[in-house]
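Glyoxalase
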Amino acid sequence: MAKRVAVVLSGCGVYDGSEIYEAVITLLRLDQAGAVVQCFAPDMQQLHVINHATGEVMEGEERNVLIEAARLARGNIQNLSDADAAEFDAVILPGGFGAAKNLSDFAVNGPDLTVIPSLVAFVQAMREANKPVGLMCIAPAMTGVLFGDGATCTIGNDSGVARAVEATGAIHKNCGVDEVCIDEANKLVTTPAYMLAENIGEAAIGINKLVDAVLAMT
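Tokens:
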């Protein structure tokens, strides 16, 4: 029977939403593995909108996370608040600053971050059902909130970000771009992706391993 996997997106675009390459590589690998995928995103306004050509905030412009994420999902997307852990075998979160700006406020508050309630509820329901979770890029910064003290993860090897992650109660493990960090007890798989990757090919190596590892745990 095909595995059912939820993919949680945080907008569309590296600086204010989901990292597009990470999301597409994830969706491609899942499709190649024969998984049935449903994308989700929260129905909320983005923290801000970034001009991806200049990196500057577009003052006065607002965009909705769910509507923007629908671009990546080719319209096949549902509100994260409607996600039911009973319907899925696993969940994967691509990175991009949306994970640190929209799904959480890590970009603003660092180790004092909060995570939006709909994501906490869904991921913790998956965990309670002993179902695997994959987090990539900056998304593992939410590990301490989502999994509690002692959960192991990686964001790569940035010492400042790693210290902030450990201040939340998680354990950080340095990891190469082509590697994954697996916390067997929590069924949590993480990989640095574009926290370290210099091109799409490098990012794909770790992301493909993450998807494969998550599916193997189902």
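The longest strand covers residues 36-41.
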